Amino acid sequence: MSESKNTEPAVTNAGAEQAHTQKFVYDFTEGNRDLKDLLGGKGANLAEMTNLGLPVPPGFTITTEACKTYLDSGDEPKELRDEVSAHLDALERTMGKKLGQADDPLLVSVRSGAKFSMPGMMDTVLNIGLSDKSVKGLAAQSGDERFAWDSYRRLIQMFGKTVLDVDGDLFEEALDAAKKAKKVTVDTDLDAAELKKLVTKFKKIVKAEAGRDFPQDPREQMDLAIKAVFESWNGDRAKLYRRQERIPHDLGTAVNICSMVFGNLGPDSGTGVAFTRDPASGHQGVYGDYLQNAQGEDVVAGIRNTVPLAELESIDKKSYDQLMEIMETLETHYKDLCDIEFTIERGQLWMLQTRVGKRTAGAAFRIATQLVDQGLIGEAEALQRVNGAQLAQLMFPRFDETTSVETIGRGIAASPGAAVGKAVFDSYTAIKWSRSGEKVILIRRETNPDDLDGMIAAEGILTSRGGKTSHAAVVARGMGKTCVCGAEDLEVDTKQRRMTAPGGLVVEEGDVVSIDGSSGKVYLGEVPVVPSPVVEYFEGRMHAGADDADELVAAVHRIMAYADRVRRLRVRANADNAEDALRARRFGAQGIGLCRTEHMFLGERREMVEKLILADTDAERERALEQLLPLQKKDFVELFEAMDGLPVTVRLLDPPLHEFLPDITELSVRVALAESRQDANENDLRLLQAVHRLHEQNPMLGLRGVRLGLVIPGLFTMQVRAIAEAAAERKKTNGDPRAEIMIPLVGTVQELELVRDDAEQVLAEVQKETGVDLKLALGTMIELPRAALTAGQIAEAAEFFSFGTNDLTQTVWGFSRDDVEASFFTAYLEKGIFGVSPFETIDKDGVGKLVRDAVEAGRATRPDLKLGVCGEHGGDPESVHFFHEVGLDYVSCSPFRIPVARLEAGRASAVSKGSDSR
């Protein structure tokens, strides 16, 4: 969602906007790009291009406030009709003709335009003003009868589907029948007489399906189209897209009324989409698509294959040269990649839209550094042009092209990535199979907004039509999905659910295919993957050089270096062994924020834990602990060596003890069978008794964490001794261990004080025994609501807090994560109760408020209290910004997410400083 990350203020003059709260319509000459909240992205940018003196067809914008009023009340604001009439009168005077007049009609388009780009998700109607009378005037004025009737059939088709809710397939079937009757394959081969018949057919479809005639009054057409655009804001596909892209639901859409210019007036006319840089790679050059004798929807719909934009130079050099100048003007003005829609009407170039273009993750990093080198932006702004989600995409594996997997086709590399899955040919199947655990590739001739559900469910998208500006390409790039478009050699038959490759090879539904969004190649079968060059860079196996992969690595390196320089938050790793710790360190970890000691009790050590649990006497328990002590100490020595000189926060045993025992059902069956054979094992009987004794209805809220340390004598002190002895051993060998001991699941300061007293006694003993000065910090996890609410008291006994946001989220919401995510989270997301899972991004209003309050209370008691977070939220981009805002000292996350956290911590600092380092 590149445009939504734009750091420009939505409104630069809040007072000026407040003064216009009752003004619902703005002429293009009145607005500017800073009024996106009010005019939407499209309207604000049309106004900006008008201000720049670029050739924009005259028009006006109905504000998002009008839309919100309409959606809230079910009716348009009472002032709106008069304002629209006044602006329409002004437009008619400018154009010298009336909307829909019989002899030389003014025609307009009615287009949606939200603050953030939502390609294809809302409605557009072109050619408003055409009727049975005005179509004849348009034919006479243009001197092209075919063009007039083609424009009229397009209006009825768009209006019928968008405004009157007629099934769009009915129009397509009638159009296909007309082409079939003439034995042609493209609609441009239909002549005026055939299009006139098609108009009659379309009007009959409207009458039959909508129960009314197609409106002949041009103002009625416009008013109904405006309402349809308003209502499309709450359409299913628009709501789904907003949830996917995390766009707020309360913004509303503006409506742009623009005088029509026509690209379907013959070979000297056309329409196109252009990018000032390649949105897939970020490279500079001439990128885009052009289609002669067509209207704008034909390009993005992918229903006709376009030609590369560069070919416009030989088709219409004058317009091409002018377009290149405008593209340079816009990129310099916006200081970013611009996505441009244009139309050429009989050799006259018109600009219909510009916006900051969506781009792939790799392009985002390259473009950001290129713009720095060109002096257009500074390093701080470059850091804001990328994000952690994009960096995570760059760390995914890529295909190993040295393997002998069969290449069956090649298309346009529209959105990079390596996607493998079973071929499916409609969105319903994609969703159904995906929910059953299958990975799928959605294959279509071209996609349209109704395919959004399937595109979200699929690993990647493959189309046989369209280019880099088609619906599939634009939406896939916005979602970070792998996409290959315009694979013309592949014949897609959605009805037969198959795809035929050159040579007759048939791919049936369910066959595995692989698509490479970086090269455009399509493979039969599963292609093995190799590590991403960005991961190799983070692991120290790759350096910046000259080829494409190295160029990307160089861009990532530059931005990461700046992020590390400016960030305040330190980034630690959740790691439980030396191997993970070393990898985390290579990824830039500045310590370990969570070492889960329970992972050290698994494998062959489980038997020792069983002995501890089964111990009937103090002597048996002490023997079990003595067996565990040297093993724990060895683990810590290795961990401290891997993280030498950096802090290592060791969490004492947290989970319920029954997790280290056999499954109750399996053990019961085993004992029952043994008893039936009269050869029951004494140890199994004791184990079964222990399992029953420790069984809990809700173990996550039972005997675990600090409670274990208080009811099982010696358990925590054994762990503290292992940590202390390991630290002393490292110090004796000139190491620099910086251990921190963390007590889990504390709910009251008294629990912490009891464990702390025992721990300090052990530390004093080890210090005396070894002669090594040990200064180990003692702190706690804040993972229960009560701990957060009494943080001021707990801080009296804690030198640090680490927020365990996984458990804190469970206990605040009353959710059992393992159960609820599979049972009802999907429904909650679809109904809009959640914008995103609270386990993925921190719930700022609930869980976040507890964190904020605990930070303030803790520091009020102990100003030097060190604060961190060790739940997986520590690696979530949006959550990192929250943790920066509330004043934590560090975040901790899994090793693979460390680069993402580093980047986002830098972005958070750059935002809060509000300065550009140019």
Automatic annotation (TrEMBL):
It is an enzyme of class 2 (transferase). It comes from the Bacteria. Its EC number is 2.7.9.1. Keywords: Pyruvate, Transferase. This is Pyruvate, phosphate dikinase. The keyword Transferase applies.
